[in-house]
Amino acid sequence: AGMELAEPRLLDALACLECFLGVLSFVGIRLVGSPYGRYSPQWPGRRLPARAAWALQELPSLVWPLCECVRASSERLGSWPNRILLAMFIIHYVHRTLIFPYLIRGGKPTLLYSWALAFAFCAYNGYLQSRYLSQYAVYVDNWVTQPRFLIGFVLWLLGMLINIHSDHILRNLRKPGETGYQIPRGGLFEYVTGANYFGETVEWCGFALAGWSLQGGAFALFTFCVLLARAHQHHQWYHEKFEDYPKFRKIIIPFLL
Fold first, then answer.
1. Which residues are the signal sequence here (predicted)?
2. What is the CB-side half-sphere exposure of residue 132 using CA atoms within 13 A?
3. Does a structural domain hold residue 247?
4. Is residue 60 part of a domain?
C-alpha cells in the first residue's frame, strides 16, 4: 500500500525534474555545444562505435515498456488508451534501437560520457513513461475517440514519419565515394535546418496531447529544449560552413523559429 501511494508522487516528481533538466540541457548546449556527431572531435575522451553506442543507449526505453507489458501486475494495461499510448512509445524505440542504428553510414564514434548521459536519460524516461501508463494513468472508456487523443495520435504519426524521412535524406546526402558535408535538400529541410528534430518534437508533442499527462508533457518539453539547442548549433554551423546556405530557412519550426 505504501508503494502504491509513494510511486505516483515519485512519478510526478520525476516528471517535474525532467522539465527542469530539459531547460538545463538547453542552457548547457547553448553555452558549450553538444559533444556528438560532427562536433565530437573537438571533445576529449574515450569513444564507442557509433552503431553499438546508439543501439545500447536507446535500449532502456525499449526494455522498460516491454517488461511492463508482461508483468502480471500491470493493471492499467487492460485499458485501450493505456495500451495504445504505451504501444506508441514502444514503436518509436523499436525503430530507434533495432532499425535506425543499422542504417547509420560512417557515423563518428560516440564519446563515452555522451553515451552515458543518453543511456541514463533513456532509463529515466523509459521508467517514467512505462510505469505511469502501465500502473496509474486512468482514462475514460471513450478516451480514444475524443478529439484530443485523435489529434495527438495523428501528430505523433506525422512527426515520426517526418523524422524517419528526414533521417533518410541526411543519410543519402553523399553519393558513393564522396566526402565532406553537403547542404540538406528536400522535404522539410527546404524550410528548417533541423527537419529531423522538428519531426521528433511534433511526435512527442502529439504523444503528450494524446495522453494529456504531466509525464507525457515533461517528455515533450525535454525533447523540444534539447533538440532546439542542437538545431540552433547546426544552424550556426551551416551558415559558417556554406556561403550559399538558404537564408530563409528557420532553425526548427517552419516559418516561425
1. none
2. 26
3. no
4. yes
Domain that holds residue 95: 2-241
> How many CB atoms lie under 10 A from the CB of residue 121?
19
Per-residue b or e along 242-251, where b marks 16 or more CB atoms closer than 10 Å to that residue's CB:
eeeeeeebbb
Length of the chain: 257
* 253 part of a folded domain: no
| pTM of the full structure | 0.93
> What ranges make up the beta strands (E) of 55-146?
110-111
How many structural domains does the chain have? Answer: 1
What's the rounded Cα separation, in Å, for the pair 138 and 79? Answer: 8
Residue 107: inside a domain: yes
pLDDT in tens, 176-232: 666 678 889 989 999 999 999 999 999 999 999 999 999 999 999 999 999 999 999
**Which positions ≥6 away from 13 have C-beta within 8 Å?**
none
145 Cβ neighbours under 8 A, 6+ residues apart: none
> Taking the C-alpha atoms of 59, 62, 66 and 68 in order, what is their torsion angle to the nearest 10 degrees?
100
